[in-house]
Structure formats: C-alpha cells, structure tokens
Write a structure and sequence with these properties.
Number of helices: 11
Strand order of the largest sheet: 3-2-1-7-19-18
Number of strands: 23
Largest sheet: 6 strands, mixed
Strand content: 15-25%
Amino acid sequence: MQDHHVVVVGGGFGGLQLVNDLKGAPVRITLIDRRNHPLFQPLLSQVATTLLATSEIAWPIRNFFRDRPEVTTLLAEVVGVDSETRQVFLKNGQKIGYDTLVLATGATHAYFGHDEWEPVAPGLKTLEDATTIRRRVLLAFEQAEMETDPTVRESLLTFVIVGAGPTGVELAGIISELARTTLPREFRNIDTRKAKIILVEAGPRVLPAFAEDLSDYARKELEELGVEIRFGKPVTLCSAEGVMIGDAFVPCRTIVWAAGVQASPAAKWLDIPADRAGRAVVDKELRAPGKQDIFIIGDTASVLRDDGSPVPGIAPAAKQQGAYVAKVIKAKLAGQPAPGPFHYRHQGSLATIGKSAAIIDFGWLKLKGWIAWWVWGLAHIYFLIGVRWRIAVAWSWLWIYISRQHSARLITQRESTREE
C-alpha cells in the first residue's frame, strides 16, 4: 500500500474515470458512494419508459475494481468535510482521513423552492426515480382500464412532463409511442391512443440549448407523435389531482419533473462560493478556492470554458474532469510540473425524440432524423461499460425497433423517494 491517500466521493462518470486513470500511481484510494452502483444516466429515461431494464444501465462498483487492491469501496453517505483536519464525515458517524480529496457528488432535481412537489412529480436522477416513474406510467393505464368515471379516466390517461430539455423531450416522445404503438392491442376497455401527453416549457422553445432549426425539428416530431407542447407559462402548482400551468389547471395523475437540477451540498461542506444551482465555484485546476488538496468535478463543480460560458453538466465533461485531476495528482506525486489549466472539449450535443428520430449538434455538423437516431444509439452503446451491457442494450433496441414492443414493462418495485 502507498502512503498517499486519495478519497473520492461519488462513483459517477467523473469519479470512476479518476480512479481508472490513477491505476499504477503510488496511491491508495477510497471510493465512497451511497449506492453500490454507478449508472449510465443518459439512458435513465429509457428505464423510466419501459425500454430498458435497470440491470442494463447500472453495474456494481466493486466489480470494476476487484483486481485493484489499492482501491477500497465503501457503501456510505458523506455528510460533511473538515478541510483543516483533512477528514470526511460519514452519516454513520465514522471519519475518513485523506491527503487528497475529490468531490464528485453530482446533482439532483430542483423544484425552485417547491420541494413539496417531489412526491407527486418525481424527477429523474437515480434508478429509484426511474422505477417510480415507470411504475406510475404503467399503473395509470391499468387503473384507467378499470375506471368507469370518464372524467377520472381522462385524468389517468393524461401525462404531464415539466421541462423540455433532452430528458423531458425523450420522456414525452417515448410515452407517446408507448401509448400509441405498444399498448393499444393489450387493453379492452380503453383506447390507449387517446392518452394525452403534455410537455410544459416555460421558455419559447423545446431543447433551448440546441440550434433553433434543430429545436424546431424536434417540436414538429413531437407534435407528429401526438405530444401537446405548452410554451411560455411555468408550472405554478403540482398536486395529486393535477398541475397548474400558468393560470390553467390540468387534471392528471402522472407528473414527471425534468425542469432543473440542484448540485449536492459540497460547497456548503467547504464553505466556498457556489452558483445559483449550488455548484461549487472552482479554479482553473478544478480545485476548491484556497484548498490545494481538494478537487471538485462533474455536476458538483461550476467551471467556466475559455469563452466564459459554463461547462455543461453532462457525462463527457465529468469524464474529462476526472481524467484531468488524475493527471494533476500523478504529476504532483512524481514531482513534475502540473498540467496546464483544464480545457473542456465539447464533443457535441445529442437528444432523441422517439424510436427513429433524434438531433445531433457537433457544431461543425448538424444531423436530424433517423440518421441522427442511429448515430445517437451507436454513441451511447460505445460509452456503456463492458461488452456484455453493450450487447444487451443493442439487442433490446433492435427488438423494440422490429417488434414495437417495449421489453421492460413489469410492475415490480415499490415506489421510492429520495429520502428513502
């Protein structure tokens, strides 16, 4: 065992990349996560909408590092950091000392001051969130099949997705396809094709981070799928009976929140500045201000690009940051000059709309339609970890494409909340 102790909090894209790239370095590593699995978040919406099973996008952390004796994995929750004594505090009362600390604790969904909406409008950041949404979507159809009151039945068959970013657009498109293509022949008392899918966006267009022509294409594709899009008015109330969009109330029993994110409390642990989303403001080397032995990466960090715009909170950015911090640590231990400041290399923006439509913006090249959908699929398969999971996901998609049958429609897991 080596003397220098690196503690990594968070086993997501950034944390795993860091630990992978520290292989062979003279360090011992403790990786702490409150779940025993990382997950491929870009495909989380496909679990929520019955396309993929949970086991196809998540893998045991310990499995990755079973041949790395210098890596210790702890299933625990971090609740604080003492940078003076170099200790991490765990929820169970234990303390873990460190020489170098890397916080990659991610983000969760934000309700803009209305956390009381979460029980009726779950977000989508964890497997528990995904299975809760999947359960509610499927149960809505099951309950509508038995409902005799037409008003209640209509509310059961109304699905509202709040937020028209990539997650909201994908959820709306897949739920619409589920109702219009997969389920109609399986129900006798209802016509699932009459389900109403409403996508709510407070701004003027869907996918606002994309070029306007790609955004317009996505809107048209959604409308062809039967999705009703409501622009320009925010959601002002979520309840078990429905949502208030502006001053109009929409009765519905299934609401999904895809409107915002809130970073973990890492900035509060360290008492350092944070941006409006709670992300810790770090320097050009991804260090916490004034704390040379603490790095912050991924969705937890607020990092500016060379042009002054923020680095997006996406998987490629987190992986690049994890790789960069590994280089900084190895250079320090080797007594070599540190690499230059972190530079984010944008590899493109992708969003899928339905079974055979997507948009891709590489900057120098824009794609849309079925070609973009195939590129989107190949890119996601490539970034999956392990041949087994790549084959599993590819086979699931191929089966769905040919048969139009979603393969993960079991109602099994009980509902969960973030607190549980």
